[in-house]
Amino acid sequence: MKPMKNHSMKHAVRISKRNTTRKVMISVIIVLVGLIFASLVYFAQMDKKPADVIDNTGTDVIEEPVTKDDSMPEELRNEWLANKEINSDYIGNIIFDSGLINVPFVQAKDVYKDNGEMYVFYTEEGQLVTDPTNYNGNDVYIWTNWKTGKWDKYDEGGSCFMDYANTINDQNIIIYGHHFARDWDPSGSKQFTPLDLLLEKENYEANRSLKLILDNEIREYTVTNVFIININNEYNTELLRTDMNVDFDGNPDPGFFEEYIEYMNSISEYDSGEHLSKDDRILSLITCIQHQPELRQIIICKETSVTKYTNS
């Protein structure tokens, strides 16, 4: 019986060791599976497009495709610095690759400067505004020359300016500029006047690309839509949103941009072959139509690249 007992004990020990080994192996496998799963989740997140990333508020975070470089082209940087020295409200230049326009633009966020001092600005008739009630930042430069601070309706036609509600990093950057009737300016070269050429499809291909030259930054754009709106139509003014999925009261309005893209496509003068998506950042150039004060020409451009310079 002893041998049997000894054999049983040895067998039991072997079983015990085998069970222990099996448990260790199972534990190792569980750990490895956990590590593999965690890695797959991590790399899946890494592969997501920027627009797929969600912040802790549950709102889509749209990130710009940014390239970094050491030095902005010297001529552009020197021009930017010189203009900023003239007027601290200077933001940058709009430059079409074709040379269609190359104009500076400014911004006043309010009728009062940061130091509390009221801006000097004028009515269309040239009267100095002394009571700023019912005026906003957009009124500061519409008839005021950004270089001289003087009323200027007939020479340069005031200034091109970014909407007072904008920041330069908004989804929709809105910039206004005057259009001069050809019987007033036969050259058709002042401010946003040359943009009326884009109403004809035959002029699109040569003038489809443009840039914003900013502080140590160049953003490139492609024109996607060209159309005319009547400003007496309230829906048309929705284009003035700085975030296309947030209404003017600051309430989330998901899906609005997709709806508006369809609307813009339906009223565009022609199909440019370029199309917008809900995640695009856009630039809206707004100007008047000759002798039709209730109409506005709109040029919509989508951002295609951003280069930020780190050593200018």
Task: Give a verbal description of the structure.
By secondary structure, the protein is of the alpha/beta class. The chain has two domains: 2-47; 66-309, Sortase (Sortase, Chain: A, Beta Barrel), CATH 2.40.260. The chain is built from four helices and nine strands; from the N terminus they run αβαββαββββαββ. The chain has helices spanning 2-46, 74-86, 138-141, 256-267, and strands spanning 66-69, 90-96, 102-106, 160-162, 172-176, 209-214, 217-230, 282-289, 292-309. The chain has an eight-stranded mixed barrel. β8 and β9 form a beta hairpin. The protein is globular and about 45 Å long. Residues 1-62 have low confidence and may be disordered.
Strand order of the largest sheet: 2-3-4-5-8-9-7-6
How do the SSEs run, as a string of H and E? Answer: HEHEEHEEEEHEE
Number of helices: 4
Helix content: 10-25%
In CATH terms, what is the architecture of the largest domain? Beta Barrel
How far apart are the termini? 94 Å
CATH topology of the largest domain: Sortase, Chain: A
> pLDDT under 50 segments (min length 5)?
1-62
Name the structural class: alpha/beta
Largest sheet: 8 strands, mixed, barrel
Shape: globular
Assign the CATH class of the largest domain.
Answer: Mainly Beta
List the helices and strands and how they pair.
Blueprint: H1 2-46, E1 66-69, H2 74-86, E2 90-96, E3 102-106, H3 138-141, E4 160-162, E5 172-176, E6 209-214, E7 217-230, H4 256-267, E8 282-289, E9 292-309
Parallel strand pairs: 1-9, 3-4, 5-8
Antiparallel strand pairs: 2-3, 2-6, 4-5, 6-7, 7-9, 8-9
